[in-house]
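[job 4471] stage=fold_predict status=RUNNING
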Amino acid sequence: MYLNCHSFHSLRYGTISLNDLISQGVTCGLKAMALTDINTVTGIYDFIKGCNAVGIKPLVGMEFHSEKTMRYIGIAKNANGLAEMNQFLTSYNFSGEALPLYAPEFDSVYIIYTLENAPNTLRDNEFIGLRPEEVPKLFAAELKSKIAKMIVLQPVTFRTKKEFNLHKILRAIDSNIILSKLTEADYCKTSEVLKPVEELLAVYGEYPEIIRNTEKLIDQCNFEFEFNTPRNKKHYTNNSQTDIALLTSLAQQGLLWRYGKSNIQAKARVEKELKVINQLEFSGYFLITWDIIRYSNSRGFMHIGRGSGANSIIAYCLGITDICPLELDLYFERFLNENRKSPPDFDIDWSWKERDVILEYIFNRYGKENVAFCGTNVEFKYRSIFREVGKVFGLPKEELDMLAKNPMKLHETNTIVKFVQEYGLMLEKYPNQRSMHSCGILISEEPITNYTPLEMPPKGFPIVLFDMHVAEDIGFEKFDILSQRGIGHIDDSVKLIEKNRGIRVNIRDTSISKNEMLANSYLEQGKTIGCFYIESPAMRGLLRRLKCDNYKTLVAASSIIRPGVAKSGMMKEYIFRHNNPSQFEYFHEVFKEQLGETYGIMVYQEDVIKIALHYGGLPAADGDILRRAMSGKGRSLQALQKVKDNFFAACAQKGHPIALSEEIYRQIESFAGYSFCKAHSASYAVESYQSLYLKVYYPIEFMVAVINNQGGFYRTEVYVHEARMAGATVHNPCVNKSNYETNLYGTDVYLGFMHLLSVDSKMALFIVSDREKNGDFISLEDFINRIPMGIEGIKTLIFIGAFRFTAKTKNQLLVIASLLLNNLKPENKNLMLLQEPVKEYKLPNLERSLYEDAFDEIELLSFPVSCTVFDLLQTKYRGEVMAKDLISHHKKQVKMLAYLISRKQVPTTKGNMYFGTWIDNEGTYFDTVHFPDNLLQFPFQGGGCYLLLGTVEVDYHFPTLTISKMAKMPFVPDPRYMDAKDQYKTQQQIKEDVSSTHRAPYPQEHEINLPREKMNTTKY
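[job 4471] inference complete, writing structure tokens
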């Protein structure tokens, strides 16, 4: 009887979760109910599963709204009906037009109008929904004649009075108005709740025909859905046979390319994988991915294939990945095995500049009706909740900021704030808006509108209205088409090297960069600023602690730095064993044989499979079930229990003592959830090596590429510093030398206009295009004549020194600009400047100091270029110890003067502490530790230079300074200001990189719970 139920997927309207809606349906004795969320089917698949589990017949549909007004309700008779509604709504979502007042002709959809919206003539599939409160109106003669086309309509939107209030708050949020401005038309009726069926039907007792119509409609709707059916595009060619034939041919060609003619192991692995791929009918998935890569290569784009897909030798032979699974002993079963029903999952990265070209190809190649981005549900979050709800209650901005930025215990305690908190907390985990998944693409065998309407966001690629979890549930496995700046660093470096030096580097040939000797020496010293994945302070510290000088150690480091592994304590234990190989025993010979390169520690997800296989004797596919279940990805506790039972049975059959097997299983259980995919780490390591190779041999080109790709972990200033340390001469932007991005001429680096915060990007590009078309600018007057820029923009360029080629001082240029532009009307500009000769003004000699230039640069770029920050200090003191000498001062107290680069807040059992990264006057990096009690007395005071007093601690080759005192050092007064109160404000614009992590404190050594000695099993 309930044909119009809303869940909270009716965004900013419904208040009931799907589980609660179904649960209430059970309580009210429902045998059938329909989910008809507003303009979406986001929840229907979870709704179908939930209803089937409790014996309720699920009906699915949509409530069609346009211009915030309900038009009609659609109920699908079957799957075709859902497709019809999806296609109908999609066409209007794409066109932006309002939905028609009356529904089109549908073949497999029932349409329900409200009493006030119904057309005079109804089709066979159309009905009028009569609400309980409207039953008395049937005494009117004109309505009695329509009873034959009427059905029961009891909308459901909320459950309780409190939820009704929440519904009104959601409506006010949606309309961006305060609560008191809502009208009755803006929100639902107070009757829109679920009632017991008998109570509902009693209202229609005098009109049994209406009840029969409703029952008949319900009986004729049979929407069935197979959840375990793959829905990705099945074939790349015409059928499975031709797919596997093509894949086999490509794999054989790739085998020859990667391994030569006589690698028996590689050949056997290829044959094994092809058999499984064919058996599971995933040839099409591999070929589609190969096709995307082939197109990418044809455009000269660089890509990185990573994730568990790198466990496949077929992926390696097809050029999808650059990771040899034989070299790293990567198990194919981690990626694909006979127990896996869903398609495999490739993660592929492109440069952020080229990704849209790849997306265009995919949509055009595989049909826009069959390709879409996965959606996401953006939930109400803490800050946004209190801000949005507070606005509804009419709170001013200052109070909204206070509510959003502070924890609840610091909120005021008045009545309004209590209401904001009360209803705000109810909204936690409610979906607020739909958005586009950052990288997940669905390529469907059938039109995607068979499953969902599509929306067209500003990005220009259609999105489905459900998330990746629902997509996987209904048979889709996404293609992850990602972008990252690290690839842009590499790609642009190679282009710059060829342009600047005439050298063509084939960086795709990983043999030139992986384990390259000089690159390895940089690696072990942590000289990796700018290099993808290995430039953060934490990673550089780990590399130094490990003295990491080879590929396999880098792969391990890329894994143990991950939050999960570090959180488990495995990072500390790995560092200890790496540096003290004689101070532990392998727990069992299998650990030594299979986990020798990680000192018996299960660092990788593949290690779980190895131990299950080689100690327990389980098939590798069962080992993967064990890994998935323990990492939270397994869906069946029953399947996990079965594998666990098989593990112990197999161990007993191999004669292992039960106590030993139980301890090993405990270790698997403890660390499986924290471990990281080895193939993923290996992919990161290869890309890191490519970046590092370019940094080592072409450092200036590499740093310019990093700057132009808008950096990485650090702000632009740090990469400018790196370029200067590599021998570059760094220049401020120049109208004759700079482009929008930073330019390189030999070793001369000209910063781009993009770094000038007050210069519009369109104007910057116009300057460059005019210069390319009409030649260099010969004077300020020539520039003003050619470029339609206002006086403020001209001043910015003058202050940054962009006209220094004129040999005039900044002050002289300011006078000229003022004379030319201050009294000039735009309509007379061309007349005056084109027809009159340029006047030569006799200008006074107005000198400016070095300090004035430096403060100009800080104001416009946020960092000085013409000098260093140390040159701006009042003190000439530079510290008693330099960073390069710290390692020889273990346990000694030292005093240093340094410039703050970044700091990271991390939790400890005693409160939050900080790790700082600094450079000294010689430009060398070092790190500090700031404990919670010390920070109370000596806190950070923003970016700038500090005098530091602390004790040096050398931890496995890596020195840090534990701070006991620190004080921020003042700059010289800014000479551009006469008033003393203004002379120190510019230095407040000096930046720092600040980050934080929200996690439990890492365990101490005694809490790691990983034995360093063998178990004595003789007594068992």
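[job 4471] summary: The CA atoms of residues 561 and 621 lie 27 Å apart.
[job 4471] exit 0
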